[in-house]
Amino acid sequence: SNEELPSTDIITLTRHVLAQQFQLGAIATGDLTLLLTAIQTTSKFIATNVRKARLINLVGLAGNSNVQGEEQKKLDVLSNDIMVNSLRASGKTAVLVSEELEEAVIIEDKFKGKYCVVFDPLDGSSNIDAGVNIGTIFGVYQIAPGSKGTISDVLRPGSEMVAAGYTMYGSSCNLVLSTGNGVNGYTLDTALGEFILTHPDIKIPSRGKIYSFNEGNSMYFHKPVVNYLNSIKYPTTGKLPYSARYIGSMVADVHRTLLYGGIFGYPDDKKSKSGKLRLLYEAFPMAYLTEQAGGVASTGHGRILDVVPTNIHQRCPVFLGSRDDVNDLIRFYEEYE
Ligand code: AHM
Ligand code: MG
């Protein structure tokens, strides 16, 4: 009969990354695979907490006490703790930068490894209490040769990252990852507790039909952005206008952009001089994934991955997505230069 048999040869994230590392031969020590195993574990742990948040009173403000008198932690604080603990214990990290922590964490010698991880443990905070998609964003650097792991190991352009990705907590839990060799998407099989390769070799369409901006900020936008948005909303020469989609969770908006194409933007404007999104653990990882998927990621004035950070929490304007769409926007910027 035509009945499809279930596959007996599933490709888990660990298997897939290991296979890619094998191809690199001698350079690969398996350390990155182990680091990614730790990151997968944190994503699974955060995913279960996100799912049961309403039931165990994790939403809302931190500082409430539960019946046992223990402090209830907000989901984003909890997610941060989960990541710091797991990444430290992996023995593979030297420096950690989290959106939730003012200072970088320098890992003590006992646990020190050669990777630095920059992350936003739970991005999209305004969406948490409404049950809308949220996610974890991460980027990985390797410490410079001879370095013991200092802040300068993460104040480097995004182009020097060795891996980047995000996990989206939505109707399913999806981990999207690049180790510098294309982009792959994995879906958590909750019964197995494994991320299974479901979206191999993601490529962004060269042009899309969707734009994703917080247009509520329009009165603050600079001219190039205003003119660009008008050009796609009121097209000339018989083209159709673009559709608007804006979730307000970067992970969800970027995920859709990677799969469907189009443009996602969070510009700098008259109110927010550098935009809103953080360079190290929001803009860089998403720009890295976008480029690896064949798209373009720009500040409007240049390539995001070329920006050299001076501060771990600095902000950066972000435009990313389909090659043709982002290049259209860049042309509007060039008119004003
Ligand atoms: P957060 O780190 O406080 O969650 O803010 C980051 C989020 C991004 O996920 C999203 O792209 C953006 O903020 C949305 O901002 P706004 O509500 O201004 O549109
Ligand atoms: Mg954030």
TrEMBL record:
Family matches, as SUPFAM superfamilies: Carbohydrate phosphatase
Cofactor: Mg(2+)
A GO cellular component annotation in the UniProt record: cytosol
Domain Fructose-1-6-bisphosphatase class 1 C-terminal residues, every copy: 204-333
Entry keywords, A to Z: Carbohydrate metabolism, Cytoplasm, Hydrolase, Magnesium, Metal-binding
Enzyme class: hydrolase
Single GO MF annotation: metal ion binding
All copies of domain Fructose-1-6-bisphosphatase class I N-terminal, residue ranges: 11-200
Pathway the protein takes part in: Carbohydrate biosynthesis
EC number: 3.1.3.11
The name this protein goes by in its record: Fructose-1,6-bisphosphatase
